[in-house]
Every structure is written in C-alpha cells, then in structure tokens.
Amino acid sequence: MDDARWHAAAESLVRYGRRMNPDGLAVGPAGNLSVRLDDVVAITPSQIRYDEVTPESICFVTLDGEHVGGEGRVSSETPMHLSVYRTTTAAAVVHTHSPRAVAASTVVDELPAVHYSILRAGGGPTIRVAPYERFGSDELARAAVAGLEGRTAVLLQNHGAITYGRDLAEAYERAQLVEWLADVHLAASGFGAPRILTDEELGQVASESARRRYGAAAGTTR
C-alpha cells in the first residue's frame, strides 16, 4: 500500500468533487468520481454532500469490488466505475447527473457532432446514449461499457453521463464538455434541425489538430 499516493488521490477527488455542484454537473451528493491506483480504485462515498466529503471518507476498493480502505459508504455506482477500469485504459472516471446531458439522453439515440469539440469529448463522431438501466445494477455497468466502446464519453438514458481520461482533470473536462455539447444541441433544436458536421469535416479537424499538436484530436485513451 502506498499511503502517499492514496492520500493524494483522495485529496484530488475531494477537490474536484467540490466543483460538481457549482459547475452544474450534479445536485447534492449525486454522481461520483474515481481514480485508479494500479489495482485499487479510489471513489467518492455514497450519500455525502461534496462539500462534506473529506479525504478520510473516500473509499478504496479493488478491481474485484473489495472495500480495502476509507471511512465512507461505498457508492452504488462502484460496479460501473470498476467495469470501465477493467475494459479501458482509464485512469479516472467522472459520472454526472448534469441537467442538459440528462435532457438530451431522453430525446436522442446519440448526441451528434454539432461542434467539432465532440472529438475531444467522445473520441468519435457522436456520443452514444446507453439504454436505460437501474442505477447500481450490473446491467447499467454493461450498458455503459458498451456505449464507451471506442469512445471516452457516453450518455446514460434518463440518468446522466460518464466520461474517463488519462487523469482526473481530463475526465472532468470531458464531463463539462459533454454538458456543453448537450446544451448546444438542445438550444439549436429549438430553432430547427441542427446542421451536423460530416465525417469529412471532422476528419479535417482531427488532421489539423494533430498538425498543430493540440493533443489526441480524437480524444481516445484506449
């Protein structure tokens, strides 16, 4: 056990967790964040408001779901987080209940490319909508993983969104971007059918981003 790494992970989860409500990504204790430390995952606890979460209340679980540290109650969405870690190279996962992402998930089968920044948010030309499953269920975990195939973000129907990244900062930024994209799509739909960027146009964006070394244009970390 590396106590220094565990404490640093707990502190980062507390810091980003306290942004969830002000940034409009969750209400009250809804949603959760996690980071992976080798074969252990640190995740925010269940039913504690983010402004009351402390490093000591962060939960530590193995990839098999065994609670190995932390004073808090393990989140019901831990199986979904663990499934993402087991099937991707994610180092951090953010699960939100942001209002526009939820709203979009109830009316579209996928969030289309209303803006080229979708390449950074989802890793593909669209952000899929995983079919509705009850929170905390194995079915939800499987649906989320299927929706993330080749992507770094997915909307969860009538529920929220989940994103991952190479670190917590990247995963959190993607969660914010998903909410912004959902907002743009819903706003545009109020005026009519939004114009969607073509695969060719998105390909040009990816090529130019690579040329300018803006990072992985497609946003994938798999």
Automatic annotation (TrEMBL):
Alphabetized UniProt keyword annotations: Lyase, Metal-binding
Name this polypeptide is given: Class II aldolase/adducin family protein
Any single Pfam family the record assigns to this protein: Aldolase_II
Stored InterPro entries: Aldolase_class_II_sugar_metab, Aldolase_II/adducin_N, Aldolase_II/adducin_N_sf
Native organism: Blastococcus goldschmidtiae
Domain called Class II aldolase/adducin N-terminal: residue spans: 11-186
Coiled-coil region list: none
Ranges that cross the membrane: none
